[in-house]
Amino acid sequence: MSIKDRLLAKSGNIGVAQPASEEPQSRERDSTPKTGPGQMLAFRQQMLDHNKQVESLKSELEKFDGAQPVRKLDPKLVHRSRWANRHDDSYTDPEFRDLEERIKATGGNVVPIKVRPREDGEFELVFGSRRHHACLINNFPVLAQIDEELSERDVFLQMEHENRERKNPSAWEQGRSYQMALDAGLWPSQNAMASDIGVSQAHVSRSIAAFALPGTLVEAFDSPNDIQFPWVKDLTGLSKLDPKVLAERLRQAKDVAERTPKKVFAALMEDGPREAEAPKAARKNTGLVSVSVSGKDTKVVCKKTVLTAEQQQKLAELVDDFIQAQLGVKPTA
Fold this sequence. Notes:
Distance between the termini: 156 Å
Oligomer: single chain
CATH class of one domain: Alpha Beta
Family: Belongs to the ParB family.
Structural class: alpha/beta
GO molecular function, one term: DNA binding
Number of strands: 7
Radius of gyration: 43 Å
Strand order of the largest sheet: 1-5-3-4-2
CATH topology of one domain: Conserved hypothetical protein from pyrococcus furiosus pfu- 392566-001, ParB domain
Helix content: 40-55%
Number of helices: 13
GO cellular component, one term: chromosome
InterPro entries: Chromosome_partition/occlusion (IPR050336), ParB/RepB/Spo0J (IPR004437), ParB/Sulfiredoxin_sf (IPR036086), ParB_N (IPR003115), RepB_N (IPR037972)
Order of helices and strands: HHEEHEEHEHHHHHHHHEEH
Protein name: ParB-like partition protein
């Protein structure tokens, strides 16, 4: 061994270059706190960060608070509610055909209908019957909002409001719907129903009167939907006529050639076209008799005339005969 080798062995190879290590010379410091207080501070910071994330997520979730799922359904799985008020004729009129063409153009309804789940896994229609029917007959999936928390009264109210905002039901359809709700006990009275729905009690009463018209009068029109609200009072009066008089009015309505609702109504009210009558000789009016209406009473006044008891009786009989003939009022027993 040389002197150099012996010196290096004794000095532990001091000063001799060591081979480069395969590991990097510098390492990242471990940031994990080593002391108890440091670990507590780090844990506290983590909790603060997590709380911020939770609050952010809650804020995003609140944007969807009360939102209901909307998805496309097979229209065959959606069934009419017991409160449905649309007559079948509502799915054949020009307005429905226009709606159907728009739905065809978009491949389905854009505005969702509303449904609620049934126990059998299918759905009950709340509103949107015309949109649903258009999708059904054209084999389109129907876009529907699903609401699981509706009571029977909720279903009726939402259907009522939605229908009036879109295509108002006819007087007859509206009356049928109101009568069904009252019969089922959804409301104890017409007043209570009108208050919740947001319509007048007179509107509810007139609608129900339209639905209560005798079938023979309703059938005089081409569709129950032809009956208009302003006509209901007059049609109700017609139903009280003598059967022979009413039968003649119905015959006149049936014979109307141009069958518009207004012309059918006019024929029923004897305002339709008549066969020409022989002109009557003009009569002179003395001006001594005047007739006026006050409330539900019609008054006949004979001016400057004093009638005997016998003449008064005769006049009363003449007026009574006139009322029976013109209005079909039956004499009291």
